[in-house]
Amino acid sequence: MYFKRLRDLREDNDYKQSKIAEYLGIAQTVYSRYERGYQTIPVEHLIKLSKLYQVSTDYLLGLTNSINNTD
Fold this sequence. Notes:
Number of strands: 0
Shape: globular
Number of domains: 1
Distance between the termini: 24 Å
Strand content: under 5%
Mean pLDDT: 91
Number of helices: 5
Radius of gyration: 11 Å
CATH superfamily: lambda repressor-like DNA-binding domains
Structural class: mainly alpha
Order of helices and strands: HHHHH
């Protein structure tokens, strides 16, 4: 599964992949694989990213177009 929203949110916030990887405690190459859908993203990383970007995990996963859980 390709997570276009991960890349879009990262770029919208002017973050580099290396900065997000550092935040998650992983290598930049691993984070790159998340964005491209070559590696499954662990739930704990998904949760951390949703908190960082202040969006729902459903939004990150492409299950909804609503950014937060209240809609």
